[in-house]
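Predict fold of DUF559 domain-containing protein; 298 aa.
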Amino acid sequence: MRDGVRMDLDATIATLLSRQDGVISRQQATYWGMSDHQVDSRVQRREWVRLLPGVFRSAAHDDTAASRTRAAFYWVGKRGALSGSSAAWWWKVIEAPPARVEMTIPHRVQLRAQPGVQLRRRNLHSSDLVHHRGLRITSKPLTVLLTALEVGSSVLDRALQNGTPLQGLRATVDRNSGITGSPAMRKLLAQASDGAAATSERLFIKIMRGSGICGWKANTRLRVQGRDYEADFVFATARLIVEIDGWAWHHQPDRFQQDRDKQNALTLAGWIVLRFTWHDLTERPEWVAAQVGQAVGR
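Predicted 3D structure, encoded as tokens:
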């Protein structure tokens, strides 16, 4: 190979590695002009480290969660997509990457599991597969729902707060009624869709009674600064108001503004206002009780 051609090839490969967290597949390398012999030579010289069949990392690049994620994707190829907690991390819905990279592949695809990679077999609708940051990945709504089943409802709560549309979540559940976990996704979404006002109030009351906290009234009207407001729970002696925010509350701009106006008015009138979410009530009731207990002086 002429020196000029070699330099061009080396520069192309170096640029590709830089863009891909130091990871490259044999298919990519040969597409850009390397021979199989050249690929094998780099491995033998320990310039490249084999991560998975046909996938390598440059020894000049650190072993990172991003490099392992890309390696799993390049190994599976166009047959699959990043999914579950791995997709949630790639979407930046969760902060910490999972220990193993999850890839979803169609039922017809025959692949043996590899160390560090978890294979899920699902036939997904094309609407639930997108490209994000260079990888084929489950759409954000499906990613959020699948991850919420795996790690807890806080993922769904956070996604709603950050703008994931409730309508898109509903459509996703409807499209995936046949996949494993779909009944649980539908149940989770039903909770999110209405915030279950009556249910959330019952949960809060159960938490208060279980903690021995009393002195509250539910759905009480207050007149503050010439306006009438309804509070979810009022502890009159402690001048404490507790408001419960259902998940769908995050997607009602008018209600959001009204609640902010109400909270400001109540605070200026000398009330303490605590807000709890459905996730708080279901996932950390002890914390809710401790917060209220501290506010009422127990």
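The chain has a mean pLDDT of 88.
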